[in-house]
Fold each of these.
Amino acid sequence: ARVPTRTNRDDRYFTDVYQAMPKQGFTKMFEKMLDSPNIKILLNCDYREIVKQIQFREMIYTGPIDSFFDYQYGKLPYRSLEFKHETHDTETFQPAPVVNYPNDQPYTRVTEFKYLTGQEHKKTSVVYEYPRATGDPYYPIPRKENGKVYDKYKMLADACPDVHFVGRLATYKYYNMDQIVAQALTVYGKIAGMKRIEAGAATAATAATAAINRKFPLNGNYSSNGNGTTNSEIASAI
Ligand SMILES: Cc1cc2nc3c(=O)[nH]c(=O)nc-3n(C[C@H](O)[C@H](O)[C@H](O)COP(=O)(O)OP(=O)(O)OC[C@H]3O[C@@H](n4cnc5c(N)ncnc54)[C@H](O)[C@@H]3O)c2cc1C
């Protein structure tokens, strides 16, 4: 269930034994992960716009699987969200980082991020999440009939040995970030002929992307990430 019931006073969002935030935040972490002359980032660009200009032996595809195959078996449905951001002139807004509203409100949860990051400030920012049927694809809908459609796309995917379908959209399954990192390392290990544990030890979570880009660099005059941008859309899609 998305909203677990607890019988203790643990008010953390997740109950994993080991939980951490990057020391300097996620932005810095991704900037460092992408800071390589071998990684080039192209933003706001569908991979289809550039795929013909780039020579590759293996592609890592993180987009929706139905889109990859031109929706030939129909569109896989997703649940989406609309986010409403608010800043309040108060140090804290709610008693916990995430408060769920499963009943009468039009929004389903409110997140107050400073609890998660440990930020100290006299104001606070919160985000309301409104469930939507359309919009960016966030949550696959795990129904039997959708599973059957996915299975058909999976058969097409299995027939493309040079494309690795990785992540939530490409495998039509909801994963948390730790699971996605594990999946990425497994795929990288497979490509590089290593076991996942070796892949994890040898490299950071984006190693798969970095390695592919190193082996098969983009051939255009695309700008690198020297400006410190953090969007990894293309880096993760190719
Ligand atoms: C509201 C919300 C809250 C969440 N909270 C948590 C949390 O607290 N903890 C946690 O562990 N996980 C959380 N998750 C889940 C987490 O976001 C996912 O596990 C993670 O983002 C999945 O990574 P991914 O690489 O599979 O997919 P994504 O992060 O969706 O990455 C896919 C990438 O592919 C790009 N792409 C897609 N199609 C194309 C195309 N045609 N051409 C080029 N690029 C393309 C997209 O732009 C995107 O950058 C949350 C998810 C949501 C929606």
Amino acid sequence: MIEGINLSKTYGNRNVLRDISLMIPKGEFTAVLGPNGAGKSTLLKILALISKPDSGEVKIGKQSFVNLKGELKRKIGILSHSSFLYPELTAYENLRFYGRLYDVRHLEEQIISVIKKVGLLLALNEPVYTFSRGMLQRLSIARALIHSPEVIFLDEPFTGLDQQGISLLQDVLKDLKSSQKTILMVTHSFEQGMEDIDRILIINKGQIAADFPTENLQSGDLKRIYFEKVAS
Ligand SMILES: Nc1ncnc2c1ncn2[C@@H]1O[C@H](COP(=O)(O)OP(=O)(O)O)[C@@H](O)[C@H]1O
Ligand SMILES: [Mg+2]
């Protein structure tokens, strides 16, 4: 379970998050939608404990952010706009670095398993500075999953992926969902990866504009609700 309680964040005199509270139960897959600049990435980074709110609190499981321990970080995987990859290292070396950081057991097997999932096996020993945008995105996905986190934050994960990459990511999401992982994914798509999503959260101007389950949602409903909520 992830809980954000009264989260606020300002940059200069901009209120980027305005008193947001939300609760995401274990095993739920939530999609976060909202216009550019709405505060989605800021919210994700705060919930993933890589950025601090000005006020408010994050709880993952029963632990509060203020009691953050290494053990808790190991439960979290994040794919954000920064890749957190080292360009001079190969794909393999990057994954080994993060795997060791998280004390991943059977690391060799795990590296091969995640690299296959993202379709990068042939580039395993290539330095990352030679990678295309889409390859970097694939490796970033592998990096976020190397330690089999319980809670996964994905910020626009489809960005830069080709058709095969999109389809691989959809399979990865399906796997994560069926193994009861808790997922929060920022996306701009009303279609990609939507079939596994349990809940939609619309963020607009630093606040939650809508929060609803996807069951019983008819085709076309989402687009209509979205534009109703963000138009104001
Ligand atoms: N590090 C930062 N410094 C200053 N302003 C920032 C920073 N990060 C985000 N912002 C501002 O906060 C607002 C929300 O950004 P962000 O959370 O990235 O939006 P979204 O992901 O919804 O597009 C934007 O106006 C952005 O310019
Ligand atoms: Mg963003």
Amino acid sequence: MDLNLLWHSLRPLVFRFDPERAHRMTLAALARWSERFDGRLVAGDPAHAHPREAMGLRFPNPFGLAAGLDKDAEAIPAWQALGFGFIEVGTVTAQAQPGNPRPRLFRLPEDEAIINRMGFNNAGADRVARRLRRLRERDLLQVPLGVNIGKSKVTPAERAAEDYRYSFERLGELADYVVVNISSPNTPGLRDLQRVDEVKRIVETIQEPNQRLARPRPLLVKLAPDLADGDAIDCARAALEAGCAGLILTNTTIAREGLRSRTEGMAGGLSGRPLQARSTALLATVREALGPEPTLIGVGGVRDVPSVRAKFAAGADLAQVYTGLIYRGPGLVRELLEALD
Ligand SMILES: Cc1cc2nc3c(=O)[nH]c(=O)nc-3n(C[C@H](O)[C@H](O)[C@H](O)COP(=O)(O)O)c2cc1C
């Protein structure tokens, strides 16, 4: 089945629904599918023909699902079947939380962009851990699984490190890599953690339980594109000094430059095509400053072959997509894979 063609005919219908409703319906369908099927691909599948090594892990291809689409890890087998080379779930917080009031998700079709202020709606570390444990028992995963953790809204900034630690203790062992998200614009004060001392404190606090694992997990820190270059480099260095394997660049932006759409009343993080240039430029800057060693995952505006090539040219080892998938459809991964051939 040609997924691109299918999405081309389905998209106008899906886009008639409120964005969050469309998201919920799609995810519910993928979750149901994932209970029945394991999504395993045969060895000769093109999705397994472009392996990469990074952080001591083997990725069957370099294209991953970005955090936020499957926050509660409901549809991992389906993402695997679509050909993703790795899957990142979350953001998961220590405590379950409902997120911000609706509406909190907006489509900007003219800009191929999304604005969201979801505010880390998620089932909480304990429930997601139970779900991941069941998934691990099914032994179906052929690709690395990342778990992205964030701070619970009710936890004050000075207790942030313990909040991250709680989530790590529940989820770390169930993940292949763990991402410390300090860059969402939708949890008040979260981005203030993007400071050298805070980054060090949080990562070092997580490293304690991590280093006690039989196989310590690679840790990454996810940064915002709105940081000044010098601050991003300082945070990145602090993360590496505290033992991180790499960085994810970038989260959504609070900037609104160059948009065709009107965005009054749409506070939140902007993703998709308008984010591409800044997020790729910051990736290149950080790669240049840090050298070839750390793993850099490029995310922001990937929607076609040129945009993903730009990420690799800027120094990304791996790339992730979210908004591109909404506009271009689930065939996007296969399309990107063809370009690697
Ligand atoms: C609706 C929505 C929710 C998101 N939620 C999260 C999240 O929970 N944690 C996170 O680290 N990033 C989250 N992101 C950011 C994406 O992972 C990604 O960094 C960003 O959207 C840029 O990539 P894109 O242009 O391909 O969408 C979210 C993005 C969107 C659009």
Amino acid sequence: MIVLGYWNLRGYAQPIRLLLEYLQVEYKDKLYHENGEEWFNTDKQELKTNFPNLPYLIDGDVVVTESIVIPIYLAKKFKKYELIGQNNDGSFNQNEIIFLEILSILKDLRDTLNSSARVPSFKQEKDKIFNEKFNVTFEKIKKQLGENKFLLGNLSYIDFYFYEVLKIFKFFYPNLSIFTDYIDRIENIPQIKNYLETKENKIFLLDRMKSLYYY
Ligand SMILES: N[C@@H](CCC(=O)N[C@@H](CS)C(=O)NCC(=O)O)C(=O)O
């Protein structure tokens, strides 16, 4: 069975969990305790890769790390090439490049929010920061989405990534009402709907973020 290893939080693993759920793959969500003992003292030493990190994915003899690479492995393994912007038969499509561009832009957006919100003054300045730093990216994404349902037209992994980014933004900016139809669309994908209703631990995200961030 596929194993996805990560800390006991959403973090970099959450969009990958959504992808696994979407693919209806049986997987074990291996969650490491935040004290790090099991990961650093044992599993990190024993993982059969030169690049041990969290998240990791184990599929039989194959070990994959790096959060942007794991979804590419999964899409190729399950021959769902369109989930990474390729044609259905896995051949090249310019969307593959746009896919990577958007993934990189979304990662920057997420990382910038993450670092901004660790500074105490964030609490007072967050609206100004939103207008100065984040809005421009949201405008670009809005343009990319246009009248389409998903960022590349058809559903792809970056939609799961963007959905998670939006959820994080909603934590810091509860009154933010952008991409609401888009969020609903993702949440209504049957596999995702089922996951959100049955497995997702909604409380955990908030509790952990409360202790690390200013909001
Ligand atoms: N570039 C890596 C970064 C992974 C990373 O920074 N992982 C953090 C959690 S988000 C970690 O605690 N890794 C465990 C370790 O350093 O051993 C990725 O995108 O997967």
